[in-house]
């Protein structure tokens, strides 16, 4: 399974979780089958709320699950 965790920085396992999915400066991707961890900078960080679209980033990495404390309506859809 591949998991996406919105993160404060690009330190992978050592990153702090960011409080909101869309405005996270980084995304940490974890593959539970291989234990691989990849930190990727969020290209839409700083965009106005509701204007960023992360579906492509998640789809390209085969993400199955997003773990987030906060998520906007568009991301939930």
The span between the termini is: 21 Å
* Number of strand segments: 4
What is the chain-wise order of helices and strands? EEEHEH
What's the mean pLDDT score?
83
The major β-sheet equals:
4 strands, mixed
- Helix count, per DSSP? 2
Structural class: alpha+beta
How much strand content do the residues show?
15-25%
Shape: globular
> Helix amount, in percent?
10-25%
Strand order of the largest sheet: 3-2-1-4
In short:
The protein has helices at 55-60, 73-76, and strands at residues 2-7, 26-31, 37-41, 65-66. The chain has 77 residues and is α+β, with helices and mostly antiparallel strands.
Please give a structural write-up.
With 77 residues, the protein is of the alpha+beta class. 13% of the residues lie in helices and 25% in strands. It has a 4-stranded mixed sheet with strand order 3-2-1-4, with no helix packed on it. β2 (26-31) and β3 (37-41) form a beta hairpin. The longest helix has 6 residues, at 55-60. It is globular and about 30 Å long. The chain starts with a strand and ends with a helix. The mean pLDDT is 83.
